[in-house]
Amino acid sequence: MDGFPGSNRQGAARILMARHDGSISNSAKDSPPGGASRPTISSRLEQFEKRQRELWRLTFLLLFLISIGFAIVSWGTIRNLTQRLEPLLPGLVVIVVLFITYAWKRNREISELRGLVHGLEQRDASPPSEKQIDQLFSVISRSQQGYRDLIDSFDDILIALSLDGEIRAVNRSFADLVGANYQQIIGRPVTDFLEEGSGEGAELVRRALPRFLERRHWSGIIQVRLKKQNSVCYYDCVAHAMTRDNQVHGLTVLGRDITALRKNEARFTELFETLQEGIYIATSDGSILDANPALVRMLGYDSKEDLLSKRVPDIFTDRAERKSLIEEVEHQPAPQGREINLLRKDGSPIVCLNTATAVRDTSGRIIRYQGSVLDVTARRQMERQLHKEQEFARRLVDSFPDLILVVDSASHYTFISPRCQEVLGYELAETANMELGGRTHAEDLPLLLALFADILEGRQTFASLEIRVRHKLGDWRRIRFNFSPLADETGKIEGVVLSGRDVTELKRLEEQLIQAEKLAAMGQMLAGVAHELNNPLTAILGVTELLREGQGLEESTKRQLELTHRQARRAARIVQNLLEFSRPASPQKKPVDLNSIIERTLQLHEHSLRRNNVEVDFRSQPGFPGVIADANQLIQVFLNLVTNAEQAIREVRESGRIQIRFARVGSRIGVTFQDDGIGIRPESVPRLFDPFYTTKRPGGGTGLGLSICLSIVREHGGTIEAEALPAGGSAFTVYLPAALDQTPAASFSVTPLPSSAASPSSLDLLKGRSVLVLDDEESLRSLLFEGLTARELQVDCAATLEEALAFAAQRSHDALLCDLNLSQDGNHVSGKVAAQRLLAAAGDRKPALIYMTGDLIESSQTPASPSLPRYLQKPFRVSEVVALLQDVFAAAPADTTPE
Fold it and tell me: Which region holds residue 300: left if phi is over 0, alpha if psi is between -120 and 50, else beta?
């Protein structure tokens, strides 16, 4: 290297050449035997070998210093590495092998040089040739070039200085750093290129030089400023003294550029100090080496020193937890987070998320632990509170009777409450791909989508809509939904919340209530009509009966009177059935005759059946067992079945046939209604009795009739079965428990009437008896007056209470026939009140009381004692009145009081 000690090849060449010339000129005559030039050549060779040895020592010293400097500078970095450094060993072996190879080549060149010199020493008579001299210097040149290339290959800067700061030698790294060549650098002061960063370089050198001369070694980090670039750099330097005859005449400096490392350290320190997460470094025995301010604040200590004085086990709430954490860190391949519980300085616990790793040396031994700590106490408290609120909301939704749905703006369900299975039959997993309106009735879908759009666009904030939704089993459920918007944190509407309540049963009850109200209104109307019809029917029956009893009538007149009387009785039965159906008495189960129930049902529907050309095939079976039931409720059931059969026939033909048959099945009585109508689809049979299920056309029915019928029959301990007939049509069979130990005779009649036949002895009971009739209907008063007078009874008829009181004041009466519903001057007057006043006016001899009424007479109104009032239901015949009076007069007369 130019300027490096011992590298002046040209001077050495001149010395050797001069000696060579001298030896040649004096070889013949001046040289003594044995060669006078040998001492000169040998001394020169010794000097050359000495300088070569110095060069080798300097080279080995530089290599040693470089290795030591690299180890010192890099030791901290190597210790911080988590990777294992075993792969570096093969590389080091390769470097050593290469260096040995290089040294071997250099030694071989020196050996060649020695051989040449030795040859020169032994050849006094013949001086060395030019070729030998060129070969010698070629070897020397190659050797020096190798040393120069070796030093220039260093990345670190290498500089040789005199004690006064003059540059004697540098390597290529230094030349590149200052931007100058060797000729511009050698011999100039180092201060021409560099200066100490603080500006106090001269003073620092003055104070440090005596100590350096004493120790002949120095290492440290210096800050230098490059004058040409005006930039500050940091170098980790190692300086060694150059000595000659044990005197220091200069120094060599090896410097490694650590500017980037210092910048990184500065950034790391800044990051370390400003991080909000706690950072720590701890030894394996539990000592805390370092901690950032965030960790100091987190644990509540006043200063870092206060925290560093603690041991790691002291800040753990549970030492076993620390032991488990250490085992986990030692075996985990990469850092992982784990929650730990630490103690603050004041003793309060905190929950932290710890991420730790183990730092190992080259042998794999753990030398320290380092990691970060994040205080998550507040977060865990918030999570617990949030969990409580979510659990409360979930329990609230689960216990809420309504179905809760959340729909996003794309009409996809984002939440469905578990109530969905109960309301619509779908498991939550089955609703994953459902969309709003997918199970909605086609007629309700446009209203649903329009209302959904209004809520999303903010035109409405709350709305309700009742729609039909298909159940998983296929039937329609009525759901009343409430709609409300769902907004995000910015207030933008992103979905809709729907709460739906199944109102199917409620609607059924409403339909039943409406139907009951309609029936009640119709019953009131029919009751009024029947009441008004009972009076004229009573007159017709009575007059025709009186005329038939007359003497001297022609046969044709008798036939006509008989026809009139028979039709009047038929009309009376129809009115009676209408009253029983439209205004039924309180349900009372008693033995009834099914023959009579069927006949009365057909009488109620006779007109409709005849108009629609439907023939009824019913064969009465008088000896058939009866049942314990409420007659009016059974009529309602049978009438519904007959009506359904008639409508089924009308669906397919102009005329048809209904067959009604009795059968006994064990202890049950079966009544079958079979028609030849449209029939029933087999898949519809299991659902015929479901509320609101109907096979009729829209508007043809509510779907409640059969469910009501089944409910009534079940209350009687029976059931109803439906069957689709193979040949067409359908059959419905009502099964009821048979009445045990009962004779199905007249005892099963609904309203037993007294016998119209009167024996001569019973007629004697009527003679001379007096009867007071109080009724506002003139036709009834006339009928009773003529009919009873013909039986030799004394009859007083009054239209008002005042008239009746006048008659009662004139004479006493044996019987009082009083209408229950009287009217006077357009006002209603209670017959019981009127009868009470008349009985009070009668004094000690009170008449037997008989109430006349067009309403239904319940069994509770049948007297259990002769002293109680009797009831006579309109329309009645004169013979029925006479028979009742005979029963009353036949009993021992006693004082009577009104009910």
Answer: left
pLDDT tens digits, 725-779: 888 888 999 999 988 755 443 333 333 333 444 455 556 778 888 999 999 888 8
Residue 705 CB coordination number (10 Å)? 20
Half-sphere exposure of 603 (CA within 13 A, CB side): 20
Backbone φ/ψ region at 34: left (φ over 0), alpha (ψ -120 to 50), beta: left
- Examine the pLDDT at 355 and tell me if it is beyond 70: yes
431: which 2 tokens?
A: 């609703």
pLDDT at residue 11 tops 60: no
877: helix, coil or strand?
A: coil
DSSP at 825: T
Q: Is the pLDDT of residue 7 over 50?
A: no
Percentage of the chain modeled with pLDDT above 70? 75
Q: For the residues of 267-313, what is the DSSP string, one character each? A: HHHHHHHH-SSEEEEEETTSBEEEE-HHHHHHTT-SSHHHHHTSBGG
Q: In a 10 Å sphere around its CB, with 0-12 CB exposed, 13-18 middle and 19+ buried, how is residue 569 labelled? A: middle
pLDDT digits (tens, 9 = 90+) for 236-277: 999 999 888 888 889 999 999 888 888 888 888 888 888 888
Tokens matching residue 14? 């001149």
Give 301-346 pLDDT, tens digit per residue.
Answer: 999 899 999 999 989 988 888 888 888 888 877 777 888 999 999 9
Looking at per-residue pLDDT, the higher value among 833 and 685 belongs to 833
C-alpha 564/C-alpha 541 separation (Å) is: 8
- Integer Cα distance of 149 and 105 in angstroms: 14
The rounded distance, in Å, linking the Cα atoms of 315 and 317 is 7
**SS3 category, 72:** helix
- 227, 194 Cβ separation under 8 angstroms: yes
Helices and strands (DSSP H and E) totals, the chain? 25, 30
Contact predicate 816/847, CB 8 Å: yes
- HSE of 552 in the Cβ direction (CA atoms, 13 Å)? 0
Pairwise CA distance, residues 618 & 660, whole Å: 5
Residue 493 backbone dihedrals phi, psi, to 5 degrees: -75, 120
Q: How far apart are CA 762 and CA 712, in angstroms?
A: 45
With CA atoms as reference, report the closest residue to 166 among 190, 185, 183, 184: 190
